[in-house]
């Protein structure tokens, strides 16, 4: 009955009851409004196949009027300065004054500056997130249209109009241009279910074990929620201060911050040491001396287990796993959480000898990794649930007391000093960006053997400084993306717009002109970008990038359709999205997985495509890399499709220190060193294999397995070069060979005496001058663009761009290693996708042990 992540469920269910806007609507007023709404819906449902105009006239605008908007609406206003390419169905105004001011504007696009909310209406019960099957003409995807209209309104009003209502009469959505993900973070209320209309029955997610009385109370609550949130008063500042929506957003952020902080403290002060000690004590192959190597193995196993549990908590609370239906409902982690909470509430102890919960956890992990048709779960494994990821977890069996304690602490917000009972945490409302708070704690804690024989935390206050890990503030992430990637989006749209304008006056057949435009399709070209965060941490920046770019891709699809005026233009990406959806649904049908088409809307599939093709990242901390994968997997989870293979995009290494391949080979030759150019040749040969991995969609587990196999081929070819280059990079920084004998170039006089050609003699003279320049400037890294790439293997950058500043801006950092000065230029990765044959290993990450010895 309710969807979307614009407001937290905690606020919508409990927090809203304390707001004045909620309290002002008494029971009598609510009954009056509900009776009027029921009358309107009775009329539309009795109409045979109502079209958009009928739905607007008989339901949408009358219902808006009922909840406070009256006649404060202008219809079919163009937001374009020229033409009518941006025409939302309605423009709502806050009051009579704003309405009158808007009507006085001669240019319709100027009227938006007086408006407060857009309305985009569709015919009764039309699907909102996909093209309508069987439509006579291309109408576009409604939700994508709303993204485009909001961007346009935000632009022409300088950020004053940022709200939009999208509805088909039955489903009502509220969008906010300021959301982290506009396409995903909306609020939707299904009034068909809320008012119990014919053909709008509840599903298992709506019921959730509720009694009939509880379901009826929920319906009453949600109708009142609709009246408050979609009513005019919610959009208008109260007493000149915040609007109700702004208050709701603030309260949601406060709740999320509080719960995330509490969760992070519990995880690493209580849960993490508890897991580490239990794993070490339960391991039949434990090192009795508890040496540092074994403690590191335990630490990794504890973190992997923690990541797996967090993954399942998120997935189940967001209805990505079928925990409400089928056999899985009896085995799911949600059921374990309920059982543990009930025993805790009844003060029933958990015997240390019992081990019933651990096999259930392992069954869940195994089902996610390998798939289980009986439980209705497709194979999702992307590496997190591999048996080889943490061998200790395959050897142990934790008792119920430990598992129950861990599950309860991760599932409830509880202050032992407060009399308030523990409150259930719904992970649906926690953004995956909040996992970064967990990562910060990881850097500051290792493991040690305590005096009492337990394994506990060894605090390392300098952990962050030692690893060089610092975090980009939330408020800067959006600005960085806008400055670094935004111009590339504008560039592609501008190029398509110019070509479409020329094609509109072309005499060639329409089909020929459309085919030519598809080569410049902006949505498709945005997926050719390669963007890298060279210090990704837990993936906070990359998660936000996926959101932003997915919104941009969806908006570009709608924008392109509007730009082309001489025919119906459909982005070729639409066909690819539909093909992916069709394949997943086909697999689901053959395996009887409980997947519905609404879980595979365009926005879900586009986020997955962005993750697979665009996102790159590097971090020195291997567990940070794993956590970043978990965050990105959760954020781009596509029901029915396996977790994308990310090992080739998210790498562990040092993004600051490395070597360019060609200059390093030249240096070795200058030193007279023996070096096999065959290694470089092997690397160039596997570039095609890397291109094949990039092109794989990972729509089924076979494709993921194929990607892994191909990447092993790449690794085998590049690892020898990587190891040698790491050694040479360390030498460069430490200057070991500075005083070593060098191969003297042959004197030019000897070349003349040997009757060498003029070309050879000139080249020798030039080479001698270049060598002298290198000695003078002492530059340890040289390359065709003097640009430092950030991972191995990568593709050369087709456009230099930094993600930590504005477009075309490069930042130099200087440091000292011995007597040498090192100048590094940041570059955004990577990649000339159109020229895979030019691919070569660019930067070899320096092992931390060597990096630390250089005094970094």
Automatic annotation (TrEMBL):
Biased composition (Basic residues): 797-817
Keywords per UniProt: Methyltransferase, Transferase
Family annotation (InterPro entries): N4_N6_ade-DNA_methylase, SAM-dependent_MTases_sf
One MF annotation (Gene Ontology) recorded for this entry: site-specific DNA-methyltransferase (adenine-specific) activity
One BP term from GO: methylation
Catalytic activity: a 2'-deoxyadenosine in DNA + S-adenosyl-L-methionine = an N(6)-methyl-2'-deoxyadenosine in DNA + S-adenosyl-L-homocysteine + H(+)
Enzyme kind, highest EC tier: transferase
Region listing for Disordered, in residue ranges: 777-856
Keyword Ion transport: no
Enzyme Commission designation: 2.1.1.72
PANTHER family referenced in this protein's UniProt entry, alphabetically: DNA METHYLTRANSFERASE A (PTHR33841:SF1), DNA METHYLTRANSFERASE YEEA-RELATED (PTHR33841)
Name used for this protein in its record: site-specific DNA-methyltransferase (adenine-specific)
Organism: Phreatobacter stygius
